[in-house]
Amino acid sequence: MKLNKLILIILIISTEVLNAQTDFRSGYIIKNSGDTLYGNIDYRGDLLMSSVCKFKNADNVIKDYSPSEITAFRFIDSKYFVSKVINNRYVFLEFLIDGEIDFYYMRDEKGDHYYIDKEGELLTEMPYEEGIKYIDKKNVYYESKKHIGILIYYMQDAPEFQSRIKKVKEPEHQELIELAKDYHNKVCEGTKCIIYNKNPPLIKLIPEIVGGITYYENVDDINETFYFHGGVLTHFWMPRTNEKMYFKTGILFVLLEDVDGKKVDYYKFPIQLEYIYPKGLFRPRLSYGLNFYYPGYRSVSLSLGTNIKLSDTKFISIFSDIEFNSKMVLVPAGLLSYSLYVGLLIKL
After folding, report:
1. Of 30, 38, 96, 258, whose CB count within 10 A is highest?
2. Structure pTM?
3. Which position has the higher pLDDT, 20 or 256?
4. Using omega within 30 degrees of 0 as the cis cutoff, is the peptide bond preceding 200 cis?
């Protein structure tokens, strides 16, 4: 009971801290009157930015704007959102590319939505579905093709693109942007399209050298004392999925001592999902997942800490790690250890 309360308190505090984080970046809003106001805009996930723009002016006054209150907002040299009416309600669509054909994107509670627009045509969604259907007493995998027909219709004046369009498995940022850019260059020579969505790396590896102390308790045949841990962690950053989320793994080494005084080598391999706040001098981090030991053992891990900025590429990391015995994969069953680490994280 005490363990469950401890975990609950930690998760509540962590959730409140993460929810309180803001990420204001330079940008501007375009009011319905046509006036442009420069300031800072809170950079959040696609789901939230489809419904609200949190704007901070030069006097540090923060105001929330709905899609019906402004025409557009943009982060400097980055994402650009415009107000549109979709299904009889105002929303912010991310403007991906402006050319002979325009593409837009939005995420809501139902998932990802892509829209196509062209002069003389209506703004149209390109739906996509995949899943399992029960047909003739058996499960059959299916994926919709309606988006292909819409793309072919909007680009019918360039029939040489049809074979390429038919290979578009599902609507996706970069493939649509490249398709629209090439189409624009084909049918509108001498003018350039505008690509608002920048192309971040698909995946980036960020190494971290760490060392610290760990105290194990209630472990059979192991002396209860402090042990040194050291090794290398790797943070897999996937900015196209979420700029604040990472997949963390690596290898840590610890030399334990059994009750007879014999030294035993152990290696620990974390497999965890991680959140790192991307701005400021102190950048909170939180991860949860599994630790796999060699020789064989598995534990549940909850890690909390912060990265302290030294430069744009180097950070001092300080974090604690609480390990629990694993009851059912990710379900903790009892305290195993607690650790304190210090490290150097390097963005290559």
Report:
1. 96
2. 0.65
3. 256
4. no
